[in-house]
Amino acid sequence: MELDNTIATPLYQQLESKLQQEIESGQRPVGSRIPTENELSQQYNVSRVTVRKALAGLSEQGYLERKSGKGTFVAEKKFQRGISGVTSFSDLCKMTGFTPGAKTIKIALEDPTEKEAELMHLAPEEKIILLERIRYADGKPVLLETNRFPEFFSFLFSENLNDASLFELLRTKHNILLSHSTKTIDITFASSKEAKILGIAKGYPLLRINSVIQNTDDTITNLCQQLCIGDKFKIMV
Asked: How many C-beta neighbours within 10 Å does residue 112 have?
């Protein structure tokens, strides 16, 4: 796509679209340096203001990142997720252009804490199913996910949950649709165990998302905690 000043589309939008296509096609790979404003201005015969607006638009969308004193570079793709609604990690991966994956590291029948029993509206003496999985994007670990379900979810012990979408399995095989949630979000830092699991340094920043998720008629409550590698996610408000 060449820039054309005879059409209605502003030149900065044309340049923005061209660079975006080059990034998405792999012509400009992650980590590669973008030419300077002056270089792009000369290359496309447009003003530096036009170039600046195009680069600002791509930065806002997460395609580019500016490094002080070094220049502008193609950014690593980040997950963009909202704070409302319920979106499975597998669907989030597909929307972002990643291939999702999962590995179960623990599934167990446990006693709930008082707080968990209260949030999940459990009967006295009722246990919970704890499911801990590593979630992958294109084969790389990006978050540690811990789900807590009521005891009648014990059917999960007989399911293969590796490289599987849990929400899809619940919906299609067991007719359970988790449809809405409340979330709390904060920043924490990776423990030695979490760092080893996620392949990061101890103390690395993690985005912690705690969700209380319910089904369509509010008869089932699932507690979910996701510890996300901080620089791989963007929260949309």
From this structure: 19
Q: What is the pTM of this model?
A: 0.72
Strands, sheet with 33-34, edge to edge from the N-terminal-most edge strand: 33-34, 71-74, 64-67
Q: Write down the residue that tokens 């499911």 correspond to.
A: 131
Which neighbouring-strand residues pair with 65? 73
Q: Which amino acid is at 171?
A: R
22-72 pLDDT, tens digit each? 988 889 988 899 999 999 999 999 999 999 999 999 988 778 988 888 899
Print the SS3 string covering the chain.
CCCCCCCCCCHHHHHHHHHHHHHHCCCCCCCCEECCHHHHHHHHCCCHHHHHHHHHHHHHCCCEEEECCCEEEECCCCEEEECCCCCCHHHHHHHHCCCEEEEEEEEEEECCCHHHHHHHCCCCCCCEEEEEEEEEECCEEEEEEEEEEEHHHHHHHHCCCCCCCHHHHHHHHHCCCEEEEEEEEEEEECCHHHHHHHCCCCCCEEEEEEEEEEECCCCCEEEEEEEEEHHHEEEEC
